[in-house]
Specification:
The complex is a heterodimer of chains A (570) and B (686).
Chain A (H helix, E strand, L loop, with lengths): L2 H29 L7 H15 L9 H24 L16 H12 L9 H4 L2 H30 L9 H26 L10 E4 L5 E4 L4 H10 L20 H25 L3 H27 L3 H5 L15 H14 L14 H12 L10 H18 L7 E2 L2 E2 L2 H27 L1 H4 L7 H15 L14 H31 L15 H16 L3 H6 L1 H9 L9
Antiparallel strand pairs in A: 1-2, 3-4
Helix pairs in contact in A: 1-9, 1-10, 1-12, 2-7, 3-4, 3-6, 4-18, 6-7, 6-8, 6-18, 7-8, 8-9, 9-10, 9-12, 10-12, 10-13, 10-19, 12-13, 13-17, 13-21, 14-15, 14-19, 15-17, 15-18, 17-18, 17-21
Chain B lengths: L15 H10 L3 H4 L3 H23 L2 H40 L6 E5 L7 E5 L8 E5 L8 E5 L1 E5 L1 H4 L5 E4 L6 E2 L4 E4 L1 E6 L7 H11 L6 H31 L5 H11 L2 H20 L2 E3 L2 H9 L2 E5 L5 E12 L5 H12 L5 H14 L10 E3 L7 E6 L2 E6 L1 H10 L6 H13 L3 E7 L2 E12 L3 H10 L3 E5 L4 H11 L3 E3 L4 H13 L4 E5 L5 H6 L2 E5 L4 H6 L2 E3 L6 H39 L17 H25 L8 H33 L8
Parallel strand pairs in B: 11-18, 11-20, 18-19, 20-21, 21-22
Antiparallel strand pairs in B: 1-2, 1-3, 3-9, 4-7, 4-9, 5-6, 5-8, 10-22, 12-17, 13-14, 14-15, 15-16, 16-17
The chains are: A mainly alpha (570), B alpha+beta (686).
Chain lengths: 570, 686
C-alpha cells in the first residue's frame, strides 16, 4: 500500500460521507418538505401527470396496495422489455442490424433490468441495438426509483403512528422521477460527455489503424446511458467491459465522478432516514456502520492486491497483482471502485473481479452475501440494513429489560417473522442454487475454472443475482440456459422475497403507537449500536457463508500462501 | 399445621433424581417438537447414534469411538436442556402441590334462601357465586367472597405465608376474603363470588402449572427467531455436502451434524423455558401472583408508575416532628401540655406526640390519677384532659381557637398565622395546644416518608421510569412531599377518576402505566393500567380488574415486580446474544477440521491450534453441551439487574454476554481440546 493510495482512499471516503447531508436534505424536501427549488419547473408537470394518468395524489395506500402497485409497475416494465428484446431486429435504431434475442437471454435480461440487478449475460455492443440500449436505459432509470419508493414507504412505517397507510406509490414514483432522477441524469450526462464519453446514434466507426489494419469501434448513445447506469446504481454497462471501457470512463476523473453520483442517493438516504424519523443521529449511526464495513473492505482488497503473489516471489518477481487492473486507475482506485460497486449493489466494474487475488475477490463476494446492506443501492440497501437493525435490536434489546423497540416501535413476533424471512432469502437462494449448480450437469457445464476458483465464480454469480448487484466474476458460462434461468430466479427472489416482507414490517410498524424515548430506551444511535449492528451483519448475515467461502476464496488463498498452485481441487 | 405457602420456603423444588428422570421422559418426540431447536439436536443424535452402531458392526473401531462419543455428547446436550426445564418446572409444581393441599373440602354453612335464614351444611365445592355463607371463628373460609355482614380477623397464612392476621369487614375497602383462609375471631357473612374451579386458589394453581405452556409475546418472537436461525443453519450445513463433493471429498455426516448442532442456538433454545418459569417463580416467592406471563413482561416495559402517597410513599400516618411555642411560652411547658393532652389519644398521631415530648424534652410520665380524658371525636375535633384543675386541649387550628375564645382568652393571631402558614408550606399539618384560655403553641405533624423509598425512586428514574405520586392533599402539601420523596410528578387533590384520566393521558402518548390499587374506586383505573397490581386485601372488584395480585398487600412491591420483569427479559436477551456470539469460535473449530483433508492450507484457519480434526469437532460439541448446565444457575437466578440507564445496561451486558460470548468458547474449546488430547479420547489419525 502506498501513502498516496491510502490517502486517496480516505479522501474519497470522506467525500462520500460529505454527500450524505446535502443529498439527504434534498430528499427530505422532495418527500416530506413543503417544496423544493425545482417546484416552479416540475410542479406543474407533476400535477399535469396526475391529471393525465388519473392518479389521486391524496389517496393513501396500505402496505399491500403499495406493494401491489409496485409489482404491477415492475411487471409491465418486464413484459415490455422482454417483447422489445425479442423483436429488436424489426425495430428502428439498429444500424448494426443485430438479431433478436432468444427467450432465455431475454428473460434473464428483462428480469435483470427490472430488478435493478443489471446482470448482463450478453455483451452489449455485440447484442443490443441502440433502441434496445435505450430501453435498457429507461429501465435503469425506473428500477432504482421503485427501490427508493420502497425505502421511503418503509421509513414512513417508523415516522407514522397509529396509521394504516404508507403513502401513495404513484406519487412517490412521480416525484422521484421528476425531482430526483431526471434533473441529475440530465446534468450528469452532460458532464460525462464533457469529460469525453461519446453520445451518438451514428453506426459503429470503421477506422484504419496506424499499421494500416481495419478496426470496428463500437459507439452509440453512451453518455446518457452511462449517466443512468451509474446514478441509479445499475451498473448495466453499454459495453461488455463496463466502466473499464475507455468510452465509459475516459479517465480517473470521470470514474470518480461516476462513483460520486452513484453513491449519492444511497448515502443521502441514511440522512433522510434520520431526518424523517426526527433524529438525524439515527441516520448517522447507520451510515457509520456502513462506512466502517466499507472502508475495512477497501483496505483488505487493496492490501491483497498490492501484496506480492508468493508464487511469483519465488521467481524473484515483486510488486502488485497486475492482472485485471486498469493501469489508468491503479490498484488503490480500483480497489475502492470494486468495493464500492459491490457494496452499493451497483455492479459496475472498472477492474476484472475474476482476476483479483483470492482474498481480494472475497470482498465483493462478502459485500453481496451480507445482503447488500453495506450502503446498498437506491432504497434497498437501507431497507436491508434496517432489517438487520431490527434483528440487532431484538437480539440485544432484550438485554436492557424492555420489549425491544426501534425508534419507538415495539419489535414483536410479526416483525421478527418478516425480518427472518427477508434474511433467510440470501442464504437459501445463494447456497441452494450454488449447491445445485455444483452437483448438476447443467451447472457444472458452465465451470471453466475447476476447483475453489470455480466455486467462487458460482457463489459470485448467485450472490450477485440475489443482491441485485449485477457484477460478475466472469469465467462462468453465464449465458447457458441453466445460469440464465437460475440467476434470473435469484434476482427475482433477491428483489421481491426480501423487500416485500420488509414492507409488511413497515405496514405493521405504522399501525403501532410510538413509545417516546427515555432513559430506559435502548439507544439505537452512537458507537455501541453501530458496533452491534456490524456484529449482527457479520455474524448472522455473512458468517453463514463461511463454510462455502472456506472451500472457495479462502481455500484458494491459503493454498496459495502455503505454496501450492491450484489447478483443480483434487 | 405446616404452612403450605407458595413463597418457596416449602417449595424449594423437586429432588434432582426426579428432574433427571423427567429429562429422559421429555426425550419423547411429542414433547421435543415443542422446542424446534432442541428437536433438531435430538434428530441429529439419532443419526449419529445409528452411524455409530453401523461402524461397530462393520468393525471400524476408531470411527465408532469418535462417532460414539459425538453421539453421547449430542444426547447429553438434549438431556441438559430437558434437565433445566424439569428443574424449573419442578419448582412450580412443588408450589402448586403445596397450594393444592390447602384446598381441603371444607364444610360450608350456607344460608338457605327465603325468609327462614336457615343454615344448611354443604361441601364447599358445591357453593356457587351468589350463595351466602356464615363463617365463624375457627372456620375455614369455604370459597372466595365478599364480606357482607360483620368484621373478622382472618389468618391468611395458608395463602400468603404471612402470619399476621388481617381485618376484613363489610362495606370497607378490605372486604374480600379468599377461600382457604381461616377466620380467627368474630363471625361474618360472606357472599360467594366464585363458582367452583374459578376461585383464586384454583386460578393460582392453574397459573403455576401452566406457566410452562403459555408463551409470552417476547418468548413467541424469540422462538420465531430461533427457529429461523435453525432453518438458516440447516440450509448452510446441508449445502456443505455438494460443495465438499465438488471440491473432491465428501464431508463426514457426523461432523456435519456436529457443526449443525454447534451453530444452532442450543444454549438459549435449551434454557428459554427455564428462564421464563423461574422468573414466574421468583415473582411468586415475593408473594405476587401474575395472572399471565404477559403481565410480567409488561412490567418490564412500564414507563410510568402511579404511586399512592399514603401507605406507599409515606408511612400512612402523620407524625409530630416539632413543638412551636407561642411567644412567651417555654417549649418545655408546651411539650408537657401536649403530652398530657395526648395521653388518651391512641391514634398514631397522638402516640407520636407523646413520643416526641419524651424524647425531645424528657417529659416524665405524668400522674394521671383522677384525670378526666376527652377522646377525639368527630364533633369536638379535639382531644385532651381535665386534670388537677387544668384543662388541656389539642386539636385542629379552628376548633382550638374557638375553644380558647370560648374560655375568654386572647388569640396570638400573628403567631398562628405565621406558623400555620409555614407548617402548611412544608407539607405538614398544624395542631394547636391550649391550656385554659391560653394558646401554648403549635405541633407540627408531618407525613413521614418511608425509609429507603427515596433511593428506590431514584433507581426507577435511572431505569427510565417516571414516578407519579397520587394524593388527596392540597397542591402545596403535595408539592412538598413530592419534592421530599423525589417523584417526577404528582397529582394533588386526586379524586377516584383522576387516576383513570392520568393513565389514559399517558397511554395516549405511548407510555405503559403501572399502578397499585385496592378499593372498588380503583377498579376502573386498574382495568385501564397496563400493569395493575391489586392488593389481596382489596375488594373483589379491584382483584378482578388487576392483572397481578400482591398476596402481602404491600404497595411498594410494584417496584420489585418491575425489576423482576426486566430481569427476565435481560436474562433471555443475554443468553440469546451469548448463544449467537458463540458461533464464531465454533466455525473456527469445525470448518478447518472438516476441510483440511481437501485443502491442507486451510490449517491456517485452525487459530486455536486444536490437536486434530477429530479432537476439534469433539471439543466444540462438548463445549456446546456443557455450557447449558453451566448456565442453568444463571437462568434460574436471572442476570443481575441494577437499575441504570438503558445505554449503560446495554454496554455492560454487551461486554459480558456479547464479547464474552465471542471470546469464551475460544478458551473453552481449547481447554477441552487439551483434556481430550491428554486422555486420548480420539485417536490422532482416525
Amino acid at each position: 500500500m502506498t501513502i498516496p493510495g491510502v490517502v486517496g482512499i480516505l479522501v474519497l471516503t470522506a467525500a462520500i460521507i460529505a454527500l450524505a447531508k446535502p443529498v439527504g436534505s434534498y430528499l427530505y424536501a422532495v418527500y416530506d418538505g413543503p417544496r423544493t427549488w425545482l417546484e416552479p419547473v416540475m410542479g406543474p408537470l407533476e400535477r399535469r401527470l396526475y391529471r393525465w394518468t388519473g392518479v389521486d395524489s391524496k389517496h393513501e395506500m396500505r402496505w399491500t396496495e403499495y406493494v401491489f402497485a409496485l409489482l404491477i409497475f415492475n411487471l409491465v416494465g418486464f413484459i415490455a422489455l422482454y417483447i422489445l428484446l425479442r423483436i429488436q431486429s424489426v425495430l428502428p435504431f439498429n444500424p448494426q442490424h443485430l438479431p433478436d434475442l432468444g427467450p432465455h437471454l431475454s428473460f434473464n435480461t428483462a428480469v435483470s433490468f427490472m430488478t435493478n440487478t443489471n446482470w448482463q449475460a450478453y455483451s452489449g455492443e455485440a447484442t443490443m441495438s441502440y433502441f434496445s440500449q435505450d430501453m435498457l436505459m429507461i429501465q435503469q432509470v425506473l428500477s432504482p426509483i421503485t427501490g427508493l419508493c420502497m425505502a421511503v414507504a418503509f421509513i414512513r412505517g417508523f415516522s407514522r403512528k397509529n396509521a394504516d397507510t404508507l403513502g401513495n406509490f404513484w406519487v412517490d414514483l412521480t416525484r422521484t422521477l421528476l425531482f430526483v432522477a431526471l434533473p441529475v441524469l440530465l446534468i450528469s450526462a452532460l458532464v460525462l460527455v464533457a469529460m469525453g464519453t461519446p453520445d451518438t446514434l451514428l453506426p459503429y466507426a470503421h477506422v484504419t489503424t496506424l499499421q494500416g489494419g481495419h478496426q470496428l469501434i463500437a459507439r452509440g448513445p453512451v453518455g446518457a446511458f452511462e449517466s443512468a447506469m451509474q446514478f441509479g446504481d445499475n451498473g448495466g454497462g453499454f459495453f461488455n467491459v463496463n466502466a473499464g471501457h475507455p468510452f465509459e470512463s475516459p479517465g480517473a476523473a470521470s470514474l470518480i465522478f461516476q462513483m460520486m453520483i452513484g453513491v449519492s442517493i444511497p448515502v443521502g438516504l441514511t440522512y433522510y432516514f434520520g431526518k424523517a424519523v426526527g433524529d438525524t443521529r439515527q441516520g448517522w449511526t447507520i451510515l457509520a456502520a456502513m462506512m466502517a464495513m466499507f472502508v475495512a473492505g477497501v483496505f483488505i482488497l487493496y492490501h491483497a492486491e498490492v501484496a506480492t503473489n508468493p508464487l511469483l516471489a519465488q521467481l524473484g518477481l515483486h510488486g502488485p497483482n497486475l492482472e485485471g487492473i486498469d493501469w489508468r486507475f491503479g490498484p488503490a482506485l480500483s480497489s475502492f471502485f470494486e468495493t464500492l460497486t459491490t457494496a452499493v449493489s451497483w455492479g459496475s466494474t472498472a477492474a476484472a473481479n475474476d482476476s483479483l487475488m483470492p482474498l481480494g475477490g472475497m470482498i465483493p463476494l462478502f459485500n453481496m452475501m451480507s445482503g447488500e446492506v453495506i450502503i446498498g443501492a437506491w432504497g434497498v440497501g437501507l431497507l436491508g440494513m434496517l432489517a438487520f437493525a431490527i434483528m440487532a435490536v431484538f437480539l440485544a434489546g432484550l438485554m436492557v429489560g424492555r420489549t425491544p423497540e426501534y425508534l419507538g416501535k415495539k419489535i414483536q413476533a410479526f416483525e421478527i417473522k418478516m425480518a427472518v424471512l427477508a434474511m433467510i432469502v440470501p442464504t437459501f437462494v445463494i447456497l441452494g442454487l450454488a449447491a445445485w449448480a455444483v452437483s448438476s450437469k447443467g451447472g457444472l457445464a458452465g465451470i471453466f475454472n475447476p476447483g475453489p476458483h470455480g466455486l467462487s465464480e458460482i457463489l459470485y454469480a448467485f450472490a450477485s443475482g440475489v443482491g441485485n448487484n449485477g457484477s460478475a466474476f466472469g469465467g462462468l458460462g453465464a449465458a447457458l440456459p441453466f445460469y440464465t434461468w437460475t440467476v434470473g430466479l435469484a434476482m427475482l427472489f433477491g428483489r421481491f422475497a426480501m423487500y416485500i416482507p420488509a414492507l409488511a414490517i413497515a405496514g405493521s410498524l405504522a399501525r403501532k403507537q410510538t413509545v417516546p424515548a427515555g432513559a430506559g430506551t435502548f439507544p439505537t444511535h452512537g458507537a455501541t449500536f453501530a458496533v452491534l449492528l456490524i456484529a449482527v451483519v457479520v455474524i448472522v448475515g455473512a458468517l453463514t457463508f463461511f463454510p462455502a467461502l472456506a472451500l472457495g476464496p479462502l481455500a484458494e488463498h491459503f493454498q496459495l500462501w502455503s505454496g501450492h498452485v491450484i489447478g483443480g481441487g483434487k | 399445621m405446616a404452612v403450605a405457602s407458595p413463597t418457596g420456603r416449602v417449595a424449594a423444588g423437586i429432588p434432582l433424581s426426579v428432574a433427571v428422570r423427567e429429562s429422559f421422559r421429555k426425550l419423547s418426540p411429542r414433547s421435543m417438537v415443542l422446542n424446534p431447536v432442541m428437536f433438531v439436536v435430538e434428530i441429529g443424535s439419532v443419526f449419529t447414534s445409528v452411524d455409530a452402531v453401523r461402524y461397530v458392526i462393520q468393525g471400524h473401531t476408531s470411527l465408532f469411538s469418535f462417532t460414539g462419543q459425538i453421539s453421547i455428547w449430542l444426547w447429553l446436550t438434549v438431556l441438559f436442556a430437558n434437565f433445566a426445564e424439569a428443574l424449573a418446572e419442578g419448582r412450580g409444581q412443588a408450589q402448586a402441590a403445596a397450594l393444592r393441599s390447602t384446598r381441603t373440602d371444607t364444610v360450608a354453612k350456607r344460608i338457605a334462601g327465603g325468609r327462614s335464614a336457615r343454615i344448611e351444611e354443604v361441601v364447599a365445592s358445591q357453593l356457587r357465586a351468589g350463595d351466602r355463607v356464615v363463617v365463624e371463628a375457627g372456620d375455614t373460609v369455604p370459597s372466595d367472597g365478599t364480606v357482607v355482614e360483620g368484621t373478622a380477623a382472618i389468618d391468611e397464612s395458608p395463602i400468603t405465608g404471612e402470619s399476621a392476621p388481617v381485618i376484613r369487614s363489610a362495606g370497607s375497602d378490605a372486604d374480600a376474603v379468599t377461600g382457604g383462609t381461616r377466620v380467627i375471631s368474630d363471625r361474618i357473612v360472606v357472599e360467594i363470588t366464585a363458582n367452583p374451579g374459578e376461585t383464586f386458589l384454583d386460578r393460582m394453581i392453574a397459573l403455576i402449572e401452566s406457566a410452562v405452556r403459555q408463551k409470552t409475546p417476547n418468548e413467541i418472537a424469540l422462538a420465531i427467531l430461533l427457529a429461523g436461525l435453525t432453518l438458516i443453519f440447516l440450509v448452510v450445513v446441508i449445502t456443505i455436502q455438494p460443495f465438499a463433493v465438488y471440491s473432491g471429498h465428501a464431508a463426514s455426516i457426523t461432523i456435519l451434524i456436529a457443526l449443525l448442532v454447534c451453530l444452532i442456538p442450543t444454549t438459549i433454545g435449551g434454557l428459554m423455558s427455564a428462564i421464563g418459569i423461574s422468573g414466574m417463580n421468583r415473582l411468586l416467592r415475593r408473594n405476587v401472583l401474575a395472572m399471565s406471563g404477559r403481565a410480567i413482561e409488561a412490567a418490564g416495559d412500564v414507563n410510568v408508575i402511579l404511586l399512592d402517597k399514603t401507605g406507599t410513599l409515606t408511612m400512612g400516618n402523620r407524625m409530630a416532628v416539632e413543638f412551636l411555642p407561642s411567644p412567651g411560652v417555654n417549649a418545655g411547658v408546651l411539650a408537657e401540655a401536649a403530652l398530657l393532652s395526648s395521653m388518651a389519644d391512641e391514634t398514631p398521631e397522638g402516640r407520636s406526640v407523646v413520643e416526641l415530648a419524651r424524647s425531645q424534652f424528657n417529659v416524665p410520665n405524668p400522674d394521671t390519677g383522677g384525670a378526666e380524658f376527652h377522646e377525639f371525636s368527630a364533633e369536638t375535633r379535639m382531644s385532651g384532659v381535665d386534670i388537677h384543675g387544668r384543662v388541656v386541649r389539642k386539636g385542629a387550628v379552628d376548633t382550638v381557637t374557638a375553644f380558647v375564645k370560648d374560655q375568654g382568652g386572647s388569640i396570638p393571631e400573628e403567631f398562628i398565622h405565621r406558623e400555620v402558614q409555614r407548617i402548611g408550606s412544608q407539607g405538614g399539618t398544624p395542631l394547636l395546644v391550649a391550656e385554659g384560655d391560653r394558646i401554648l403553641g403549635a405541633i407540627h405533624l408531618k407525613d413521614v416518608v418511608k425509609p429507603g423509598i427515596r433511593d428506590r425512586i431514584v433507581s426507577l428514574r435511572d431505569a427510565g421510569i417516571k414516578t407519579v405520586m397520587i394524593t388527596g392533599d392540597n397542591p402545596v402539601t403535595a408539592a412538598t412531599i413530592a419534592r421530599e420523596v423525589g417523584v417526577d410528578d404528582f397529582v394533588a387533590e386526586a379524586k377516584p377518576e383522576t387516576k383513570l384520566e392520568y393513565i389514559r393521558r399517558e397511554q395516549a402518548e405511548g407510555y405503559l402505566v403501572a399502578m397499585v390499587g385496592d378499593g372498588t374506586n380503583d377498579a376502573p383505573a386498574l382495568a385501564q393500567a397496563d400493569v395493575a397490581v391489586a392488593m389481596s386485601s382489596g375488594t373483589q372488584a379491584a382483584r378482578e380488574a388487576g392483572n397481578m395480585v400482591d398476596l402481602e398487600s404491600n404497595p411498594t412491591k410494584l417496584i420489585d415486580i418491575i425489576e423482576i420483569g426486566k430481569q427476565i427479559l435481560i436474562t433471555r436477551g443475554a443468553m440469546t446474544t451469548f448463544s449467537v456470539a458463540n458461533d464464531v469460535a465454533k466455525y473456527f473449530a469445525i470448518i478447518p477440521a472438516m476441510f483440511v483433508v481437501i485443502y491442507p492450507g486451510l490449517r491456517a484457519l485452525n487459530i486455536m491450534g486444536l490437536t486434530s480434526p477429530e479432537s476439534a469437532v469433539l471439543s466444540a460439541v462438548i463445549f456446546n453441551a456443557l455450557i447449558i448446565p453451566a448456565l442453568i444457575p444463571l437462568a434460574m437466578r436471572g442476570v443481575a439487574y441494577k437499575p441504570k440507564g438503558a445505554a449503560a445496561v446495554l454496554r455492560n451486558n454487551l461486554l459480558i454476554y456479547g464479547l464474552g460470548g465471542l471470546a469464551l468458547p475460544f478458551v473453552g474449546i481449547k481447554l477441552i481440546d487439551v483434556v481430550v488430547t491428554a486422555l486420548h479420547l480420539v485417536s490422532l489419525h482416525a
